[in-house]
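Hi U.,

Before I forget, here's the chain from the pilot set. I'm dumping it here mostly so it's searchable later in email.
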Amino acid sequence: MVMASNLDHVLLPMPTLERDRAMSKEDHSPRTLVQRHHSLGAAILAESAVSQVSQQQIKTAAGARQFIVEHMTRAALHKGEFSADSLLDELRGHRLSVDAVIDVYVPATARRLGEMWMDDDIDFASVTVGSMRLQTLLSLASSESLEFSRGALETIHALVVVPECEQHSLGAFVLAAQLRRLGVRADMSFCETRTDLISRILSAPPDTIMFTASTRGTLEMIGDIVLDISNVARHRPLTVVGGGLSTASDPIGAICGVDLVTNSARSAVSAAVERKRENSG
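Structure:
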């Protein structure tokens, strides 16, 4: 047991004279000071490197690394020339596959552009230019990511439709790229009139028709088209809705009469294969 007097002695600070003597014994030579300076600098650099690595590991809700999305956004909005080849090479340098570029990073960057426009950080012209550049990058990546054989090309025929009232087409390009990698022949329809679209479907019947819908106003138009198809088509193709509304809680499929509501190209193709078997039976 420590007595009070001893405890008081333990807690007393080192006398000033003794402390000064101890400090005087420290090595203050130039060489030692330089070594301490280098050690401090190395510690700061190490801390900075760890911080940068941590920042690079931050991911978006879609699983994309945030710093890459920001880099792609700056490239898409750059006032100077844009090179899709150079950007794709940079993305490969970050160990991204072209599939990841198509499925994850182009959509994530497109969403970022939309957010910036909604927040009035950029104008509509900038969004348009940025989207066109992403589309160029997407086309380049798609050309290098064809996983199907020539024989599989005709297995399923899909028609990706961007309705007249839709202003967003980049998602349709992403979907078409995904379909082609799955061995699907994917054609696209942009803002065709209802009459022209029905004529096209009758002249070259697809196995599935995939509509993109980002607004409520699009659903009623899609419903009219689906009804027309049901009335005139000998074999009704699988009808699918995807896009910004596909994750809504409302019964989107019941509103517009489609067979499937999904943002998964693979799920849509699987359903299309089943429908084709039913039509052939």
